[in-house]
Amino acid sequence: MPESAAALLERARRPVSLSGAGLSAESGIPTFRDQLGGGLWSQYDPAQLATPQGFSRDPKLVTEWYRWRRKLVADAEPNAGHHALAACAEMVHVTQNVDDLLERAGARNILHLHGVLGRDRCIGGCGFTEAIDMAEPPPLRACPRCGKWLRPGVVWFGETLPTDAWTAAVSACSACEALLVVGTSATVYPAADLIRVAKQAGAKILVVNTATSEASHLADVELIGPAGELLPKILSWAL
Ligand code: BV8
Known about the structure:
three-stranded antiparallel β-sheet, alpha/beta, globular
């Protein structure tokens, strides 16, 4: 099966990848399914913390959660899955992930639908934003411009996606001949809807996941296994 997926991806024009937390799992970054794992934080529900309400209820707790995640990413390395995707120079990488592991693997054409951990921005909307040091992420602090809190530059549940990234992602998925769906439960919208957009545009849908997911019923080819193992196989022509 991997050989037919490889052939399909090699000849596809304007290929697109759509990735989720499973792509970074082998780099040691817990997925949302795993309740973003580890010790202290496993008692919290990410869907509650990753919301404006969660932040306004307890800005210090939410900021500490992001500090923990930022340090995890800073200590992590891109895995073979990130490197295989990065080797596909023509591929547009639409990701739900907020880490920078695709960038650090050398990938270009990356669209972060849900923002990035590497920046803070003002909660008050004064427009202040700044890059942060992921290895030494700052604690909860006030915006130097207006005094309101600074928050991570990510998209929380109930917040709209960045227009540029979303528009570019819809356009790429509407024109691709193959969409490679990697490591996502495909349960969060509107990101998950991109699979239907690509399918309706006539693209072949290839799914790589360690389990079946909400993407399975749309798959032309579904490969069950870890992204770090399967992606180098089906993208070997690019490596
Ligand atoms: C919005 C950033 C408009 C923050 C995240 C219909 C239409 C529109 C909206 C909605 C809708 N229905 C519901 C909504 C609301 C909501 C939503 O989708 N809720 C869900 C829970 C039903 N959507 C929103 O709020 C979005 N905004 O729609 O704006 C709007 C505005 C106002 C009011 C209404 C609408 C914003 C959503 C963005 C939220 N932010 N992240 C942060 O990171 O802290 S979401 C976050 O969770 C991720 O970005 C990702 O998108 C999602 C988790 O999904 P996955 O990445 O798939 O990860 P998961 O753990 O679920 O699965 C991992 C998979 O990997 C598994 O399948 C596993 O088997 C696999 N795996 C594991 N290891 C491996 C592997 N695969 C391969 N190899 C491995 N080694």
